[in-house]
Amino acid sequence: MDTPKQAALLKRHRLKPHLPRHVAIIMDGNGRWAKKRHLPRIAGHRAGAHSIREIVRLSGELGIEALTLYAFSTENWRRPKKEVGLLMQLLKQYLRNEVGELLENNVQLKTIGNTGDLPLEIQSELRKAMGATAHCTGLKLVLALSYSGRADLIHAIKRIAKKAKAGHLHPEAITEKTIGQSLSTADLPEVDLLIRTSGEFRVSNFLLWELAYSEFHITKTLWPDFRTPHFIAALRDFQGRQRRFGGVESIVGSVTSWAR
Ligand code: FPP
Prior knowledge:
This protein is α/β, with parallel strands linked by helices. The protein has a single domain (4-149, 189-259), classed as Undecaprenyl pyrophosphate synthetase (3-Layer(aba) Sandwich), CATH 3.40.1180. The protein has helices at 4-12, 30-36, 41-62, 81-104, 120-133, 149-165, 176-182, 228-239, and strands at residues 22-26, 66-73, 108-112, 140-147, 193-196, 215-218. Strands 3-4-2-1-5-6 form a six-stranded parallel β-sheet, with helices on both faces. α5 links the parallel β3 and β4. α4 runs parallel beside α5 (120-133).
């Protein structure tokens, strides 16, 4: 049920009540944004952090359940050492500065990915921020950090294989649910909407299993320029789609959910 504040927000933005439960975003175009302005790439990432702040706040206010952001992929480790270092600094600043804002907006911070690869000081900031927001019951903000969809699938397959080897699971009993529940996203609703900025038509290595029935919204807008009007446009685009999940009937909502 929408709160009166949410209902007013939906009306103001001319949105229908059925919003995606889980939105995932590939935040692309920070480098191009900076290049256009003759600025160093990190200036684009810094501006991108402002977009994150705005979209997180708005998602919470609208009553979206989960927002997963592709903040750092395993492939991003291949970037020049200086850029990786600056991105880590930015992440540290974000985690330190944003906890108050997250608490104010009842946002729970979570991560997916191999966070053990991150510098120890970032791991410690993450633990602090996740601990401080663990009780929050509003939006789940999921940062994908050192994340690879294929690596997450490999990890899930290994867990399942170990259970089978130990005799706790018959191979014939493996279903979509078994796999969904073994992924790092097991406690999240299905991804209803994927947004990719900067006009690239790729999934890259993001949420490979989870995106099976997601609606895609690709925009040419570069991530640092992606603010409230662009997010609202993506949600309106989603609300205009007919979701059939491979069938013939138009259904609004998710076809399955491993979480429940
Ligand atoms: C891609 O832009 C963006 C990333 C590498 C990840 C997103 C990172 C941020 C928004 C920085 C702040 C993050 C946090 C969590 C504080 P790109 O460099 O690939 O852009 P390009 O394709 O134009 O070069």
